[in-house]
Amino acid sequence: MIFAEKLTLDFHGRILFENVNAKFVPGNCYGLIGANGAGKSTFLRCLSGEQEPSSGAVTVPGNLRLSMLKQNHFEYDDVEALQAVIMGHQRLSTVMAEKDAIYAKPDFSDEDGIRAGELEEEFGNLDGWNAESDAGQLLNSLGIEEARHGRLVKDLSDNEKVRVLLAQALFGDPDILLLDEPTNHLDVDSILWLEEFLYGFKNTVIVVSHDRHFLDRICTHIADIDYQKVEIYTGNYSFWYEASQMALHQRRQANQKKEDKIKELQAFIQRFSANASKSRQATSRKSLLDKITLDEIKPSSRKYPWVEFPSGEKPLGKEVLAIDKISLSVDGEPLFTDLSFTASKGERIAIVGSDLAVTGLLEVLAGMREPDAGEVKRGHTVNLGCFPKDNTQFFDTDLNLTNWLRQFTENQEENFVRSFLGRMLFSGDEVEKSARVLSGGEKVRCMLASIMLQAPNVMVLDGPTNHLDLESITALNNGLLKFDGTMVFASHDVQFVQSLASRVIELDGTEFFDLNMGYEAYLANADRRARRGLAA
Predict the structure, then answer these.
(1) 493, 504: one domain
(2) DSSP characters over 446-486
(3) Does the residue 536 lie in any domain?
(4) How is 382-404 classified by DSSP, letter by letter?
C-alpha cells in the first residue's frame, strides 16, 4: 500500500499536479494515464522517492519493499546480467555480498562465524536459495537465453539491457511495483508473458503505458492525470475510455438543453416584460432563468489529432504489389530469402518477425532499399505512401513546420497548411518551430500529416505508433480503420495490429509463413507457438 497526501509538484512555474490525495492498495493494478507532459513519469518518481514534491507527502509503510523500473542501465555495465537482476532486491543483494566477503576471509574469526550465521538465516528468510533460479527464469521469459545470463550488461544489446532492468524490477516479489513504459523494446511474446505475470501479481502495481491491450489486460483501475488532479476509476482502460466519453457527452447534452431553455426564457422575458398582463409571468420566468447554471466543462489536457486518409483521385486497380523471390541480408546474415507474395486491393497485411528483418522488408516495399535478389512490382494505379521507422532524414532541415509541410502538397496557401497542422495539434507559434527540434511524437504526427496530404491508395507503415500518446494512437487507429486502400504494416502495439490485420506474414530467418488470418488467431496459432518454443 502507498499513500499520496496533498501532493503538489510545481515544475519551473508550471503546476503538473496539485493537492493530490490517492491511495494505492494491494491486489490492484493501476494504469496511470494522461496526455504527454501531464506528469505521469514525474508522479511515479514522486511515489518512489526519486523526485521531491513541492509540497505534500508520500507514505509507504516501513516494512514494505518498493521496486521501480529503472531507465539507466549504465550503472550496471560491469555487472553480470543475472546479478544485475538480483540487485533489484537491495537487501538480499547486500546480504549475499556481505556473506561472500566473510567467507572469503583468510582469517575467519568467531565473530565472523556468528555474523555469518545471522546472514545465513536472513538469506534463507529472503528466499535467497532460489534467487539465481528465479532471476534466470525472469530473463528467460523476457527473451534473454541462458547462455547470455553471465554476460556483463555492457556487452548486451540495447534491447537486452532494457529487459534486464525490467527483470530486476520484477524480481523478488516486491510489495509495490512501479513501471514506466515496461513494454518498450519488447517483442509481442515478451509483452504477452508480462501481461500474464502482472495479471497474477498479488501486490500493488502502478504502471504507465501507451499500450491499450496491455492496460486492458492487467489494470483493475485507471489513475487519470488531468486538470492537475489524479482521479482513480474502477475498471480497465477501455472501460474508462467509454465511460469518460459517455460522461462528457451527457454533460454536453445537459448543457445544450439548459442553453436552449435559457434562450427560450430570455425570448419570453424580452417579449413580454413590458406587457402589463404578462409581467407577472415574465418575472416568474426571470426567477427560473436565474436558477439555471451550466455545468463547468473544463478543457482537458488530453487532445486527439484529426487523422483521416482520404481516397485519392486515382482508383486502385486489381494489381497492387507483387513480390517475387526477394532476398535481403545484413553483414552476411540473411534477413529473409526467396520471399514471394502478392498484396491485393483492400488487404491489410501485418509483417512480423525480428525488427531488423521487418524493417528491411518494409524498406524494400517502400522503394527505400534495393533487395539483394528478386523484384518488387507495383501496379500502374498505385500511389504509395510510406512511413519509415527511421525518419531522421526528413527532419534534417531548418524549415519551420509550415514550410516543411508545404513540401507534400500542391496547395501552398498559408491558411490551408496552418489549418492542417492545427488538426495535428500544432497551433499558434508552434508552426514556426524548426522541424529539426521536434520531439519524437511531433515528428510522427508530421509524417502522418504528410502522408494524408499525398492521399495514397497503398501504404507501407513501419512502427507508426512509436512515440505517440494514447490519444494519438487511438486517432491513428480509427483513421486507418476507415482507409479503403491496401496496407502493409508493422507495429508492436497488439491492439493496433489486432484491429487492422486481415493477414499475417511472419519472417523467420530463411523461412517465411504467409497466414490468411487475423492477428489474434495468429498469436494463438499452435504452429506459431511451436516455432517460438512456447507452451501450447
Answers:
(1) yes
(2) HHHHHHHHH--SEEEEESTTTT--HHHHHHHHHHHHT--SE
(3) no
(4) --EEEE-S--GGGG-S--BHHHH
How remote is the C-alpha of 153 from its chain's centroid? 25
pLDDT digits (tens, 9 = 90+) for 440-477: 999 999 999 999 999 999 999 999 999 999 999 999 99
Q: Which domain holds residue 49?
A: 1-64+175-235
271 and 217, same structural domain?
Answer: no
Tally of domains in the chain: 4
pLDDT tens digits along 201-225: 999 999 999 999 999 999 999 999 9
Share of the chain above pLDDT 70, in %: 98
- What is the full DSSP assignment across 109-130? -HHHHHHHHHHHHHHHHTTGGG
Cβ distance 128 to 92 under 8 Å?
yes
CA gap 144, 155 in Å, rounded: 13
Which amino acid makes up residue 485? G
Q: 142 near 188, Cβ under 8 Å?
A: no
Residue 276 has pLDDT above 70, yes or no: no
Query: Three cell numbers at 119?
Result: 546472514
Cβ contact 236:29 at 8 Å: no
Give yes or no: residues 89 and 3 share one domain: no
Distance of alpha carbon 501 from alpha carbon 517, whole angstroms: 8
In the numeric block, which cell numbers belong to residue 352?
A: 512480423
d(CA 234, CA 221): 4
- Cell numbers standing for residue 247: 460522461
Dump pLDDT digits (tens) for 72-81: 888 899 999 9
Which domain-ending residue is among 173, 201, 221? 173
CB 95 within 8 A of CB 128: yes
Measured distance CA(412)–CA(410) in Å, rounded:
6
For helices 131-141 and 158-170, the axis angle rounded to 10 degrees is 130
Q: In what order do the strands lie in the sheet with 66-68?
A: 66-68, 176-180, 204-208, 29-33, 221-226, 229-234
Binning pLDDT at 50, 70 and 90, where does residue 299 land? low
CATH number of the domain enclosing 393: 3.40.50.300
At residue 466's C-alpha, the angle toward residues 47 and 185, to 5°, is: 65
